[in-house]
Amino acid sequence: MEAINQELEKLDNIMIKYISALKILETQLQIINDDFKYIKKYNPIEHIKTRIKSAESIIHKLEKNNLDFTLENVEEYINDIVGIRIICSFPSDVFELINIIKNSNIIKVIKEKDYISNPKKSGYRSYHMIVLVPVELINEKVMVKAEIQIRTMAMDLWASLDHKLNYKSEYGKGVVSKRLRIISDELNKIDEEMTELLCMENNLRIANEGDVV
Ligand code: 0O2
What we know:
Layout: H1 2-40, E1 45-52, H2 55-64, H3 71-77, E2 82-88, H4 91-102, E3 108-114, E4 127-136, E5 141-152, H5 153-167, H6 175-212
Parallel strand pairs: 2-5
Antiparallel strand pairs: 1-2, 3-4, 4-5
């Protein structure tokens, strides 16, 4: 218990750099969204959520991976001490944002998981990136790890409900998981239909602009 308390205290001491990284990331993504709105006249980001992982959740994740709760293990193996979730309207917005982030000189992408092209067996769809964000504190200049999750509203709806009913539940396995997989496919169809509608609307607008000229 004494050892855990010591590590918890150390964790508290390093949180400032993670919280700072999260602030930088959120600001940079808001800048991208504003610029997008200015250039393309619409905003690809519906909303952004930030998250700081609780100490309890960090310890649980280490245990799951058979790792002791030490500050070294936290910094080395927990990539999502802080995270940001970006919710977009359409799948095409998700992929456009991914490219913008990959081209950033501020955010450095070090790991990617494309659960949109390759959904998880559970039905989970989302694009994950582990990034490094430069943080300048008074006595320290460091690159800090953070997680970015990007997905559509439909993917987010599914993930939030799955998180409550299945992913973090001891009871949700079996029939609940099966039905959630079916719902994930249904929501994917909605994303596909919305993409068709977006193309239709684009074509109609271009034709209309042509008429005006
Ligand atoms: P919580 O409570 O949401 O924080 P890595 O990042 O590569 O070191 P990790 O963390 O296993 O390894 O990677 P992965 O697969 O990218 O998952 C990271 C996060 O994605 C999870 O964090 C969840 O938030 C989310 N996630 C992954 N799979 C599922 C799923 O099947 N359903 C739902 N609802 N969310 C999922 P945590 O820490 O596990 O949980």
